[in-house]
Design a protein that fits this description.
- With about 475 residues, the protein is an alpha+beta fold.
- It folds into three domains: about 200 residues, Immunoglobulin-like, CATH 2.60.40; about 90 residues, Zincin-like (2-Layer Sandwich); about 130 residues, Neutral Protease, domain 2.
- The chain is about 30% helix and about 30% strand.
- An eight-stranded mixed β-sheet has the order 6-5-9-3-2-13-16-15, with no helix packed on it. A five-stranded antiparallel β-sheet has the order 10-11-12-17-14, with no helix packed on it. Strands 1-4-8-7 form a four-stranded mixed β-sheet, with no helix packed on it.
- Strand 7 and strand 8 form a beta hairpin.
- The protein starts with a helix and ends in a 9-residue tail after the last helix.
- The structure holds zinc ion.
- Zinc ion binds next to helix 4.
Length: about 475
């Protein structure tokens, strides 16, 4: 060891001594009020990572009153003097951290919690929020409604993309923080509660039934759902490619019984096709939730079982089931990466058509290129990877032009390599997060002999209609 090198540890330990005295467990700083999402800067919170949500709720459909506790187990990423949760509306009665009452305040969607004892970096800690009230419906920047929706049948439907889940439980509401869930909801006897994962228990006592739903795999908060009302449950299984029986649990409102039956009959075939095309089905169960036609303005890929307002046709069923791989298992790093969800789910529809006697993906691509603007006025209005604002993250360029990017990659590498590339992508980021740069660098590493520059430049990031199809 040279003399200069030997001097370094001395300087380092002097620095460390200063730092240690400064921290000493009493000088933690507050976690951030957001995670700098380019479209929803207040969504999510800095300084910790949620591992598990245990929601223990009770709902009165007639009074539209929700009450209960959220027990949030998280790991501190830094010394924390305070941290935020996201919660929109509702009344917070009490907050405890590590079993001790904590001070808290509210500022818009931020619930700011100041624990009695500071939390140390690396510490796993438990926060319990006692809350109640009538959950609100949130209007998205694009005008659509999410959060807590009242249904025609007198029940409720909770939909969370992009920020609606903060209307019914406090949490770290950003796709980058995935966690496991145990959701228990008690309702008047005779009402059903359907959610994500498996129905781990159902108990009736004193005129009320408590449903306990449990997820085995990590889930982003925007994919959590509750469907409360008059549903009929249907159970079956699908034999997976790996040869095991995947439980199917679907829920259907009475008015959709007939058409939903047809959709449910297609589901096994679509799941198996998805496994062939995208790789092993990522979750421990599947199914659909078919709500009433007017109960929501759109379908949503809620994890394990997507929600549909009315029975879906095959294309929509393919789209929402494809999201189980793209969006739910491989989740965007931020809302900027929305095209990775919607481009893949749209391309899944094209591929399904191609392989089931319809137009080839090339024909779909060509028709869009030649006169897509007749059908979708905004098709060329912005590049898929750069929506011009939060109001545009679910616009057509994110969907159709996102799918066109994938088709350009397929043209570049060929059919066989494209298939391997897609399966490799879902395997690499299974149950994780990935952003656009992760994707482009993955594609480049997978096919090092190809030049993707024009695809990224013209199709992914380029303004206007690319000059060549
Ligand atoms: Zn979609």
């Amino acid at each position: 060891m040279s003399r200069t090198a030997a001097a370094v540890p001395v300087v380092l330990s002097a620095l460390l001594a200063v730092t240690l005295t400064a921290c000493g467990g009493v000088d933690g700083t507050p976690g951030g009020p957001g995670v700098r999402d380019p479209y929803f800067p207040k969504a999510g919170n800095g300084g910790y990572d949620v591992r598990h949500y245990a929601l223990d709720l009770s709902y009165e459909p007639a009074a539209r009153h929700l009450a209960g506790t959220a027990e949030i187990t998280a790991r501190a990423g830094q010394d924390l003097s305070a941290f935020d949760l996201d919660l929109s509306g509702l009344d917070v009665e009490r907050v405890e951290v590590q079993g001790r009452p904590a001070r808290f305040s509210r500022n818009g969607q931020e619930l700011i919690v100041r624990p009695h004892d500071e939390l140390d970096a690396g510490e796993t800690f438990r926060t319990v929020v006692h809350y109640s009230g009538t959950p609100r419906t949130i209007t998205d920047p694009d005008g659509s409604e999410e959060g807590w929706l009242r249904t025609a049948g007198g029940g409720a439907l909770a939909l969370g993309e992009p920020t609606g889940s903060m209307a019914w439980f406090p949490g770290n509401h950003h796709p980058s923080d995935k966690a496991a869930y145990d959701i228990t909801v008690s309702v008047p006897e005779g009402t059903e509660v359907v959610s994500n994962g498996e129905l781990a228990g159902r108990r009736t006592a004193g005129g009320r039934t408590a449903f306990h739903w449990s997820t085995a795999e990590p889930m982003a908060t925007y994919l959590a759902t509750l469907a409360i009302g008059d549903y009929t449950l249907h159970r079956s299984t699908v034999r997976t490619a790996a040869g095991h029986d995947l439980p199917v649990l679907s829920a259907v409102v009475p008015s959709e019984t007939g058409p939903a039956g047809k959709a449910m009959a297609r589901l096994p075939e679509i799941v198996r096709w998805g496994e062939d095309t995208f790789g092993p089905y990522p979750f421990s169960s599947t199914g659909v939730i078919v709500a009433g036609e007017g109960d929501a303005g759109y379908a949503l890929e809620t994890q394990y079982r997507p929600v549909f307002p009315g029975a879906p046709d095959t294309g929509l069923l393919v789209h929402e089931l494809a999201h189980q791989w793209f969006g739910d298992s491989v989740t965007p790093g931020s809302w900027r990466d929305m095209w990775l969800n919607e481009g893949f789910a749209t391309y899944a529809e094209w591929l399904w058509e191609e392989e089931h006697g319809g137009d080839s993906a090339q024909e779909t691509f060509d028709a869009l290129y030649d006169h897509g603007e007749d059908e979708y006025e905004d098709l060329w209005s912005f590049p898929p990877a750069e929506p011009p604002g939060a109001a545009h993250i679910s616009d057509e360029p994110v969907y159709s032009r996102g799918a066109m990017v994938l088709h350009k990659i397929r043209q570049t590498v060929g059919d066989k390599a494209f298939r391997d590339l897609v399966r490799g992508w879902t395997a690499k980021h299974r149950h994780g997060n990935a952003d656009t740069e992760d994707f482009t660098s993955y594609v480049e590493r997978t096919a090092p002999d190809e030049d993707f520059t024009p695809v990224w430049r013209d199709w992914l990031y380029g303004e206007g209609k690319p000059e060549h199809p």
